[in-house]
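Field log, afternoon session.

UNIT: design team B
ACTIVITY: writing a sequence onto a fixed backbone
BACKBONE:
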């Protein structure tokens, strides 16, 4: 085992002491955010609280990124061990061995948004938003890490920079609302991190860490593992209205078309390979207008999730066939809008190793578990396709994620220990001339450049209308029309 560097250990002890001194402030910040949950791209109060916390640490804060995102940078003051290369920054492995373009930058992230969970005891009575996934804990972890890393004696020992970012809209909900934002030109992508990648806010970041709150009871924490990716779908069936009692035969029932489609989706489930971790979970967001009118406008949202991009694509085609079958059977038109969801998570092994070592130091090896595979999704997966990234998991919660019984029961395990682990990991990366951070970014081979990622994500927007509009009055007589242009 490598012997600990006394200078690095001194920085770590100072960071831990700073976090301990402000433990109460970190917990109060988390509780304040918890009490005012907001949905994606609407997180005004949460962003303001986060910006104020970072500003109180003496950081210059930028706000309004991707509508509500927050960003602040703390620059280390120690010399950097790498050699500066002149000229434009190059992409993916084109830099000469041993040379990098600039001192490394490590991003520590938190997520601003909540989920819709009206039955949660802390839900917003108007919107139904609730922190039933623990994003308030993520923000507290970022804030706590910022406390430790901005301690003046710590910054004097770090090279490179730490970028603190509170990002919007990780929960991929309210698709109809987000499509409207897109049509109004306010966003292009429907998730926060993809939108921030597009806006160039990660162009000055070399690697990123975001600690998710615990997803299972007990003290065990994890450096994180892989996760599913997904594509999002907004589906609309258009039928014809009629009086439901006097002349139902004069209508074309869009709700029945949707029900046929949902049955067809369920019939597909035996075709999903277990190794692909496929999940398809549609909901009806509008089932009609009035009970005595044949439904003519019915809307659904769904994800198509899987472990790999290929499996997502193949399953998406199957699900589209099921949606078209409902339209064909009842004589309606169906419009399917596809949008890029999130890519599968690819954790960086070197970041995982460093984080795990620090986590074991804090909570004991017996309380650290392997990450494994998560069938859920996160837009940290998108970041992991363009840079080294890590998505660890905390502890200190009970209840089921996204459900009314989910809550933090141990603030130290949920907020403080993960904040300490992040701070210690960043110190390992940026102390000693940032040699570890340089090594991580030189070794990394992400699957895409940022430009390639944006091009790929844009290619996933698709609008399919079935049957063709001119044939909608005679369902089944026309051919599917797929418009691959951006819309």
């Amino acid at each position: 085992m490598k012997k600990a560097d006394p200078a690095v250990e001194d920085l770590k002890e100072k960071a831990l002491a700073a976090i301990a001194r402000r433990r109460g402030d970190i917990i109060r910040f988390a509780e304040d955010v918890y009490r005012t949950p907001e949905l994606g791209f609407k997180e005004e109060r949460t962003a303001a609280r986060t910006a104020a916390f970072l500003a109180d640490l003496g950081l210059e804060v930028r706000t309004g990124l991707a509508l509500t995102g927050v960003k602040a940078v703390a620059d280390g003051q120690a010399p950097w061990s790498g050699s500066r290369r002149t000229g434009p920054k190059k992409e993916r492995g084109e830099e000469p061995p041993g040379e990098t373009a600039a001192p490394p930058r490590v991003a520590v992230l938190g997520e601003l948004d909540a989920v819709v969970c009206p039955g949660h005891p802390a839900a917003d009575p108007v919107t139904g938003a609730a922190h039933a996934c623990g994003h308030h804990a993520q923000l507290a972890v970022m804030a706590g890490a910022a406390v430790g890393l901005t301690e003046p004696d710590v910054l004097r020992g770090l090279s490179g920079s730490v970028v603190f970012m509170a990002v919007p809209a990780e929960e991929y909900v309210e698709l109809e609302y987000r499509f409207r934002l897109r049509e109004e030109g306010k966003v292009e992508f429907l998730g926060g991190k993809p939108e921030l990648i597009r806006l160039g806010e990660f162009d000055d970041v070399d690697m990123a860490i975001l600690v998710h709150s615990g997803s299972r009871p007990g003290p065990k924490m994890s450096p994180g593992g892989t996760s599913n990716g997904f594509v999002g779908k907004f589906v609309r069936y258009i039928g014809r209205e009629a009086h439901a009692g006097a002349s139902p035969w004069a209508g074309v029932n869009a709700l029945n078309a949707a029900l046929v489609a949902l049955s067809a989706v369920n019939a597909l489930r035996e075709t999903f390979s277990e190794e692909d971790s496929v999940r398809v979970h549609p909901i009806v967001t509008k089932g009609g207008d009035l009970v005595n009118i044949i439904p003519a406008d019915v809307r659904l949202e769904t994800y198509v999730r899987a472990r790999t991009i290929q499996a997502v694509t193949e399953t998406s085609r199957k699900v589209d066939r099921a949606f078209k079958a409902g339209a064909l059977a009842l004589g309606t038109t169906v419009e399917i809008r596809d949008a890029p969801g999130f890519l599968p998570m690819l954790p960086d092994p070197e970041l995982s190793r460093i984080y795990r070592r620090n986590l074991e130091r804090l909570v004991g090896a017996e309380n650290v578990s392997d990450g494994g595979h998560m069938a859920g999704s996160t837009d940290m997966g998108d970041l992991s396709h363009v840079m080294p990234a890590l998505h660890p998991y905390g502890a200190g919660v009970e209840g089921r994620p996204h459900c009314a019984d989910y809550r933090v029961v141990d603030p130290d395990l949920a907020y403080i220990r993960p904040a300490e682990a992040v701070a210690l990991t960043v110190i390992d990366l940026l102390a000693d001339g940032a040699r570890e951070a340089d090594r991580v970014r030189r070794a990394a081979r992400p699957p895409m450049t940022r430009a390639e990622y944006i091009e790929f994500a844009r290619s996933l927007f698709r609008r399919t209308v079935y049957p063709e509009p001119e044939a909608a009055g005679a369902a089944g007589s026309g051919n599917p029309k797929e418009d691959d242009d951006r819309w």
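LOG NOTE: Residues 6-227+344-448 form a domain with the Aminopeptidase fold (CATH 3.40.630.10).
NEXT ACTIVITY: expression trials, pending approval
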